[in-house]
């Protein structure tokens, strides 16, 4: 799955449903994973290999999204740690969050790589933390990368 594949899917789903659908920003993704308390992992601050698909779980590949209910985030989102890396909308810049602290940051305006969050089935505990991030070429397809969608709410009059 490439970043471009994910964005095409969002457009298709939006056209199908009549709603505005997009990839979440890094900030949105991280809040959904950490909640308002800033948890280390979606379920709390203690690593538990029984709550996700990661290297310590010793599974041979990705699993169905509904396999780890105990690993859900405070908002009820599943698989925000491990299983597959997830594309987000932001361009990647390693020090972006150190240099810009604003409400709901939207990421750099340009870049060479797109950001990913969440870790994959082969990631260790450090790379499945809710704050961990990485970057890949948005044109390449990876079999250990997926995405989730963000529904843009209708404007309130």
Helices and strands, with pairings:
Elements: H1 3-17, E1 20-22, H2 26-34, E2 85-91, H3 96-99, E3 114-117, E4 133-136, E5 145-147, E6 150-152
Parallel strand pairs: 2-5
Antiparallel strand pairs: 1-6, 2-3, 3-4
Report on the structure:
The chain has helices spanning 3-17, 26-34, 96-99; strands at residues 20-22, 85-91, 114-117, 133-136, 145-147, 150-152. It has 157 residues and is an alpha+beta fold. The strands form 2 sheets. The protein has a 4-stranded mixed β-sheet. The protein is globular.
As a percent range, the share of helical residues equals 10-25%
Strand content: 15-25%
- In the sheet with the most strands, the strands line up as 4-3-2-5
Cα end-to-end separation: 38 Å
Order of helices and strands: HEHEHEEEE
- State mean pLDDT (0 to 100 scale): 92
Largest sheet: 4 strands, mixed
Count of helical segments? 3
Uncertain regions: pLDDT < 50 for 5+ in a row? none
Evaluate the radius of gyration.
15 Å
| Protein structure class | alpha+beta
How many β strands by DSSP? 6
Q: What is the 3D form? A: globular
């Amino acid at each position: 799955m490439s970043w471009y594949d994910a964005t095409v899917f969002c457009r298709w789903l939006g056209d199908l449903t009549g709603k505005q659908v997009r990839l979440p920003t890094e900030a949105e993704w991280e809040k959904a994973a950490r909640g308002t308390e800033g948890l280390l992992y979606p379920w709390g601050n203690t690593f538990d290999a029984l709550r996700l698909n990661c290297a310590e779980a010793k599974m041979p590949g990705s699993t169905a999204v509904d396999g780890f209910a105990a690993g859900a985030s405070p908002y009820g989102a599943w698989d925000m740690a491990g299983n597959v890396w997830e594309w987000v909308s932001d361009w990647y810049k390693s020090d972006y969050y150190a240099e810009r602290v604003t409400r709901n940051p939207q990421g750099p305006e340009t870049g060479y790589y797109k950001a990913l969050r969440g870790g994959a089935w082969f990631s260790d505990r450090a790379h499945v933390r809710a704050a961990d991030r990485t970057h890949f070429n948005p044109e390449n397809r990876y079999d250990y990368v997926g995405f989730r969608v963000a529904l843009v709410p209708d404007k309130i009059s």
